[in-house]
């Protein structure tokens, strides 16, 4: 722990949080968000992707094409997981006591979803606790929701009920950030991590901008396509405050008065983000708007050229035909879409009281580039949007909301920029690790990254063991009804294989969830279970190059290990 904070307790809490990486811990210690990105960059896993056929085939492609292929790989390889049982439960009181000297509980309740924050009316109506499955517990119970390293994400293949890797939203966003750099060749300075109280995603400064959203990548065109899946992708930015923005120059956090991110970098990125979240209206966007606001479709009809004449159909019927079709109302495939509609659905004459949607094609030719934030432009459009249907009364507000999102960003901060983390994917993994190693004394985020990386040859043991003994409730609860001897037999029967390469170590709940571990990891898991059962008994772990012993009271066990540590630790 090379960077002492307010005091030793604060520093130990932060560094141990780099091991468990809970959502709450990242919220309190925002440096951890980018530390995990760097840990994933240091991991051999992403670099091994380069040897796969799909990666070799895109080597000479543009960064944009690489990113699109990378997206497909991540969609094929990882599920989204937010199971309450994966990393266990804690309580609000316990977490508040843990962090009470670091944060103001009132500010916390205004910013964190598990401590009272429910976002705007959307999330209030949703009922946060019911949405996350917490309604079956008392109001004090909350999940740990630990963020997974890439190794833990890959290890879900070993967990019952999973066929592939998995991770929650922060895990996927930090994996994307690392993979975009390593595989996509996207410079770190063009990758911005965005965290809200309920979600985490990235904004990538390629072309008009890209947003990673769990396993997906959303282009600007997709952002405004009006589909249900895209609207769900918008929920966090549309309904929540952005609590943390981080990149390779630092972070800015809604709760803290000082920001370490470079102000020019922050301004550059957020101006690009605002541009991505705003669009001028044209025929395509109007059709997308109607796709999303389906109740307004009854104001419109669509005209089809047919045998030298015209015929008409209700707009909602045509939008319904989009389901299961590759053709759309809003582009040059509309004619083909209409050909799929049964003939008896059409009328020979215009339908009374409905606007002919096709007429807007000429309207937008005559009125190009309308910006609905301009009241005059909005009025011009609404004049053409006249409809006797009462449902259309608030259409102006809905149009503006559809075309423009003003992200609620952290602001009014004192900027004290930190040293930027300057890396090049062309250097290769080893040189990048060497470069980061050289920055540890001067850069706390880089130092924390080595703890998140789990290489205990390069870090102190106390943070890892504090996390192991205090914040691994799943294995403790799973073995609670077993006697000491039965619990030990169960752990000793696990597959003797670590999910981490080399001498890096898994935490006890990772060992239990994935039912495997090196002898050193199983010994630490036994120590965790016994310390919870017999808190007054000292637990000692003795590591040699070939075996590890764990003792508590009069009990002693020895297991083989390949991790190669020579160390004694007593708790």
Q: Order of strands across the widest beta sheet?
A: 8-7-6-5-9-10
Report the end-to-end length measured between terminal Cα atoms: 19 Å
Any low-confidence stretches, pLDDT <50, length ≥5?
A: none
Share of residues in helices: 40-55%
General shape? elongated
- Which percent range describes the beta-strand content? 5-15%
Count of DSSP-assigned helices: 29
Number of domains: 3
**Overall pLDDT metric:** 91
Class inferred from helices and paired strands: alpha+beta
Give a brief outline of the structure.
The chain has 571 residues and is α+β, with helices and mostly antiparallel strands. The chain has 29 helices and 19 strands. The mean pLDDT is 91.
What does this structure look like?
The protein is elongated. A hairpin with a 2-residue loop joins β9 (about 245) and β10. The protein is of the alpha+beta class. A six-stranded antiparallel sheet has the order 8-7-6-5-9-10, sandwiched between helices. Strands 18-17-16-19 form a four-stranded antiparallel sheet, with helices on one face. A three-stranded mixed sheet has the order 13-12-14. It has three domains: about 10-280 and about 410-450, no CATH class; about 285-405, no CATH class; about 460-570, no CATH class.
Notable characteristics:
6-stranded antiparallel sheet, 4-stranded antiparallel sheet, 571 residues, 44% helix, 3 domains, alpha+beta
Question: What's the layout of helices and strands?
Answer:
Elements: H1 8-20, H2 23-28, H3 31-42, H4 44-49, H5 53-57, H6 63-77, E1 78-80, H7 84-87, E2 89-91, H8 92-99, H9 105-109, H10 121-126, H11 128-131, E3 141-143, H12 150-155, E4 165-167, H13 169-182, E5 191-196, E6 199-204, E7 210-213, E8 216-219, H14 220-223, H15 228-239, E9 244-247, E10 250-253, E11 258-259, H16 263-276, H17 283-292, E12 300-306, E13 309-314, H18 315-321, H19 334-339, E14 355-356, H20 359-366, H21 375-384, H22 395-403, E15 414-415, H23 429-439, H24 444-452, H25 461-470, H26 473-478, H27 484-492, H28 508-514, H29 519-533, E16 539-543, E17 547-552, E18 555-560, E19 567-570
Parallel strand pairs: 1-4, 11-15, 12-14
Antiparallel strand pairs: 2-3, 5-6, 5-9, 6-7, 7-8, 9-10, 12-13, 16-17, 16-19, 17-18
Helix pairs in contact: 1-24, 1-25, 3-13, 3-24, 25-29, 27-29, 28-29
